[in-house]
Amino acid sequence: MTEQKQEAREQWNYEELSEVLEEVKKEGYDKVALQGPDGIKDELITYADKLRNEGIEPVMIGASTFGACGIADEKAERMGAEALIHVGHTRFLHPEGADMDDFNVYYLPYREDREIMPTLREHYEEIEEETVGLVGVTQYMDRAEEAREFLEEKGYEVVEGKTGLRTTEPGQVLGCDAGAAHNIAEKVDAFVFLGSGHFHPSQVSETGEKVYVVDPYEEHIWVEPANSLDDETRAEHARVIKHKDKKKWGIVTSSKKGQNYRRAVQIAKEKLEKHGKDVYVFVEDRIFEPDYKGYGIDVYVNCACPRMTKDWQDLAFVSPDALSVLDEVEIEHE
Ligand code: SF4
């Protein structure tokens, strides 16, 4: 990162932080916790220093976070903090309606300093469709308006994404929520996605439309084909069929507030019991395969982060949706 960019990034984050600091000071908090994802841990230390300079004692949350689904309110409270500054993500709305607001959480969404507009300007002609939906990840959504204006200047009709079930920014996509795209899918012929990697675009592709990924890391626009998760879905169905005769099944959910899906657990449990299974419900903060070995259970249903990796090495890990396969096969318990 150039010195100039580093300065710009610090300036931006400091401006946002200053607003949060003002709020925190106004409330008269003495102790405030700080939490954020990998990649900006050094900045969290800077933020802690800034809190200390204001006479507020910082508490650092050790584990990094993948989303605001994992706000560390309980850990903060246990350490006597009166508020938590969650850096990196926007507020997460719980799809089952759990109260995410019962602790004082201040969100400081992270905007990536990496430039994305030069990639769009240089490669936009590769976008073949005339009517496109504009979506992306939080890190680049501060440039969505600029991208929309540019594409419209070039003759595209741009439909702005709406908020999803779990999101608060229009057009914002999470690994577990492409509602922003699904909500406008009928009006568009393709999507333009601001961000990188396959994780989020593959969710958008479930709308049945192709996704043009404006990738600031690769510095070009590449295409995520429509319905690119179909292979993953087929693999999950195969795992369920492989274990259909197993009597003991586990269901895993997370103690992270935004990944704790008790209604989904109940539905999955009832479905499995209807098929004669003995069901055991597990809860843990972070879900690692080794923790689930030794129970004599070979297959687990994921009722935590829906995008958690399914490729466990020794045990089978499947989504609740994949259980529908059990309705279509004959079961003979082992
Ligand atoms: S994809 Fe998983 S980690 Fe990301 S916001 Fe959703 S639940 Fe959280």
TrEMBL record:
It catalyses: L-histidyl-[translation elongation factor 2] + S-adenosyl-L-methionine = 2-[(3S)-amino-3-carboxypropyl]-L-histidyl-[translation elongation factor 2] + S-methyl-5'-thioadenosine + H(+). One of its GO terms (biological process) is protein histidyl modification to diphthamide. InterPro entries: DPH1/DPH2, DPH1/DPH2_1, DPH1/DPH2_2, DPH1/DPH2_3, DPH1/DPH2_euk_archaea, Dph2_arc. Pathway: Protein modification; peptidyl-diphthamide biosynthesis. Keywords: 4Fe-4S, Iron, Iron-sulfur, Metal-binding, S-adenosyl-L-methionine, Transferase. One of its GO terms (molecular function) is metal ion binding. Its cofactor is [4Fe-4S] cluster. It is an enzyme of class 2 (transferase). Its EC number is 2.5.1.108. Gene3D superfamilies: Diphthamide synthesis DPH1/DPH2 domain 1, Diphthamide synthesis DPH1/DPH2 domain 2, Diphthamide synthesis DPH1/DPH2 domain 3. Pfam families: Diphthamide_syn. Belongs to the DPH1/DPH2 family. Catalyzes the first step of diphthamide biosynthesis, i.e. the transfer of the 3-amino-3-carboxypropyl group from S-adenosyl-L-methionine (SAM) to the C2 position of the imidazole ring of the target histidine residue in translation elongation factor 2 (EF-2). This is 2-(3-amino-3-carboxypropyl)histidine synthase. It comes from Candidatus Nanohalobium constans. The lineage of its organism: Archaea, Candidatus Nanohalarchaeota, Candidatus Nanohalobia, Candidatus Nanohalobiales, Candidatus Nanohalobiaceae.
